[in-house]
Design brief:
There is one protein chain. With 142 residues, this protein is of the alpha+beta class. It contains 3 helices and 9 strands; from the N terminus they run αβαββββββββα. β4 and β5 form a beta hairpin. The two termini are 37 Å apart.
Length: 142
């Protein structure tokens, strides 16, 4: 059982997490086409907040229909008519995309809370199983 809990924690830590999503105007998305000398860029979201984007930051554009397309920061080209992300094999018509992009940052406290809840749930289940096995199969009287 300890191995199962450990495996769940490892997968939760590296595979899943909670993210804060920031909406960035298309005009700011253009600043993320090339890697700056610092290795990261700062863009403003729709509320005027500075958002740092690195090469490993999750970046998305959405179609008018709602489909979310991941694109790699600093590895795409955007013209007036197309967004080309060659590493993802995308050639998207800019007119078919919403006017804003999305930047996802990992939320440490939300993820930690989510993992703690999972550990608490696993502990509760283990306790219930232990209690059920300890109380079952009692003695029979004749």
């Amino acid at each position: 059982m300890k191995r199962l809990v450990a495996a769940v924690l490892v997968v939760s830590t590296f595979g899943l997490g909670c993210y804060n999503t920031y909406t960035v105007p298309r005009s700011q998305l253009g600043n993320l086409q090339e890697v700056p000398e610092a290795g990261q860029a700062t863009v403003k979201d729709t509320e005027g907040k500075d958002i740092v984007v690195k090469e490993d930051t999750r970046l998305f554009v959405r179609s008018q229909g709602g489909k979310r397309y991941p694109i790699t920061p600093f590895n795409f080209k955007m013209t007036e008519s197309q967004l080309v992300a060659s590493d993802r094999d995308y050639i998207l018509d800019v007119n078919s995309l919403k006017d804003n992009a999305e930047v996802d940052h990992m939320s440490t406290w939300k993820t930690a809370l989510w993992i703690a809840g999972g550990v608490a749930l696993a502990g509760t289940l283990i306790g219930l199983i232990a209690w059920a096995s300890a109380t079952s199969g009692g003695s029979q009287s004749k």
